[in-house]
Design brief:
Length: about 475
């Protein structure tokens, strides 16, 4: 049994600590990579947008410092370009040449009930762009199909502010991140918006590149950490524990039911990790030595106890065993009655009682002597013991026997009772046997019923009554 238990412990029902540590380390690294990636992505996204904000703010302020607001306001109202307007456009073109931005422009959103558009004021371009499209977008050029109403309203919302603001917008030119500064004339009118655009794809690409690089770095460092951690754990914990486990399990297998203390040998795994595993190994080794000495003392004590038990057993046999039939006597029946009554009180009693009263014993004693009368009693009892081999049999009188049927014999009681009756019937009619070998008995049976029986004696009385009835019926049948 213990071998099967150890095999299960070693194989089927066990999760090796080494595997558990590896799984935990891998899950930990994966979780750490996931969490750090989210944190890095969020942090770097915030950082890079702040960086672009500062860069775009510098460009806007630089361009704004070269704008004559009143002159530009008059140009927007009149639709006529001034010298300052032309100079500003050239300056903004130079900014496009020198800075890596998507667009630099000044526009005015126009929202009416039945119509909406974006009016171009200045759209900066590179030298190559001007050569390709020398006219470009002139002052007052209507951009009607470039922006949808939602985007125009977004521009108008930020134009109405009194400070620089940042937002994302989508147009036919692409998806851009925009910095907008409202241009306000002397009358306080927000007449146009100075804008700088950077492509969102460029921002996302930078974020993605940075995140991927850092995730790879974290994974590499995590793998290095896990590798070093597992190597350290193998050397200092898991491998020593495996060796210790093998020694302990082997010792347990050899020690099971071992009565020779000299064979209780423990194979020391010789662990020298200088930590708790080494202390545990040393403790187990000392424990095996103490166990060997303890077993020696136990065996010596058992020998002494066995001598006393033999004496007590002999006394018990004398006290509770019937000298003639070797079955239990009335004193033992009284002890069993106490146990059964306790079961009845606990509500777990389940038993039946068979009473057997031998017929013709007085006739045998009178005609053939008490010696053959004893043979008659012994033989009749032997039949009961053979049939009810799983139940206690009691001799409670000279020719009276009781069988307490529980468990298996209780389940088979009907079959066994019929078998007993048949056995007595066959021997009583067998003319080839001596008179003291023709066994006959009156039998009575009662089954415990919790509704009517309060104790074992109640069942006994009903069995006795049934036996007496059977005896009377047998006498009437013989007469």
């Amino acid at each position: 049994m213990i071998k099967r238990y150890n095999d299960n412990m070693m194989k089927e029902n066990k999760r090796p600590i080494k595997r558990s540590i590896i799984i935990f380390a891998l899950v930990f690294i994966a979780l750490m990579c996931f969490v750090l990636s989210i944190i890095m992505y969020s942090t770097y996204t915030t950082s890079i947008y702040r960086s672009y904000n500062r860069r775009m703010l510098d460009i806007i302020n630089y361009v704004d410092s070269h704008i004559d607001v009143e002159d530009l306001s008059e140009c927007v109202e009149s639709g006529e370009e001034s010298e300052k307007f032309t100079a500003l456009m050239a300056f903004m073109d130079s900014i496009m040449e020198d800075f890596d931005i998507h667009y630099l422009y000044i526009v005015r959103p126009v929202l009416e009930d039945d119509r909406m558009w974006m009016m171009n004021v200045i759209s900066a371009d590179t030298a190559i762009g001007r050569e390709t499209d020398p006219d470009g977008y002139y002052l007052g050029f209507v951009l009607e199909d470039v922006y949808d109403r939602e985007t125009l309203e977004l521009y108008q919302q930020h134009l109405d502010m009194d400070e620089i603001s940042y937002f994302k917008n989508f147009s036919s030119w692409g998806y851009d991140y925009t910095a907008l500064k409202p241009l306000i004339n002397a009358e306080g009118e927000h007449f146009a918006a100075l804008c700088v655009d950077i492509e969102v794809d460029d921002v996302q690409r930078a974020i993605k590149t940075y995140t991927i690089f850092n995730v790879i770095l974290i994974v590499v460092l995590g793998i290095m950490f896990v590798t070093l951690f597992i190597l350290w754990m193998n050397r200092n914990i898991t491998e020593p524990l495996v060796r210790l486990e093998k020694s302990v399990v082997s010792f347990a297998e050899r020690s099971h039911e071992q009565t020779d203390p000299d064979l209780l040998s423990y194979d020391d795994p010789h662990i020298h990790t200088k930590n708790e595993v080494e202390s545990l190994s040393n403790a187990v080794n000392l424990m095996s030595i103490d166990m060997r000495n303890y077993v020696r003392n136990i065996i010596a004590a058992e020998d002494r106890v066995q001598d006393m038990k033999n004496q007590v057993t002999h006394m018990d046999m004398l006290a509770y065993q019937d000298a003639l039939t070797h079955v239990k006597n009335k004193a033992w029946y009284d002890k069993i009655e106490e146990r059964v009554n306790a079961d009845i009180e606990a509500g777990k009693a389940r038993f039946a009682i068979l009473m057997a009263d031998l017929n013709n014993l007085k006739k045998i004693n009178d005609n053939y002597g008490h010696e053959h009368g004893n043979d008659y009693i012994f033989g009749a009892c032997h039949i009961i013991c053979v049939i009810f081999d799983h139940s206690p049999v009691f001799r409670i009188g000279g020719d009276e026997f009781v069988v307490l049927m529980e468990n298996r014999d209780y389940d088979d009681k009907d079959k066994l009772i019929e078998e007993l009756k048949l056995a007595y019937e066959e021997t009583s009619k067998d003319e080839s046997k001596e008179p003291w070998e023709r066994y006959s008995s009156a039998i009575g049976v009662a089954v415990f019923d919790s509704a009517v029986d309060k104790c074992m004696n109640d069942v006994f009385k009903r069995a006795d009554e049934a036996m007496y009835k059977h005896k009377q019926e047998s006498k009437m049948a013989r007469e």
